[in-house]
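Throughout our pipeline, every protein is held as a single compact record rather than as scattered files. This encoding replaces a full spatial description with a residue-level series of whole-number codes. The remainder of this section carries one protein's record, kept here as part of the documentation.
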Amino acid sequence: MNLLSIGGSDPSSGAGIQSDIKTFDMLNSYGLTVITAITGQNTSNFGIIQPVSKKILKNQLELLISDFNIDGIKIGMVYNSEIIKTIHNELRNTKVPIVLDPIIKSTTGGLLIKKTAI
């Protein structure tokens, strides 16, 4: 089974796509990832967020969708309205089950979505 995680990157692997990959592995599934934003954080502090560009996000999605038979999609951190719109446009015709789990705050209190995107 091929499962796609769309979300932010947490370098401490406590959340985000890194954590999703660990979960997919426990389910004996092949994990694919599309990064929406890169975060600077650890287990006790939150640093900064750098969202990826629309061009990079769209390219990641197009390439994976064209190459893999994806059985399920999990969407996590979306950060801003441009990311939300890009994901919607790329996935609107998919028949694959989607789990939407938008992340609002990190465990350490970092805001992971812009107020204008809510």
Q: What stands out?
A: The chain has a mean pLDDT of 94. DSSP finds three helices and five strands in the chain. The first strand starts at residue 2 and ends at 9. The chain has one domain: 2-117.
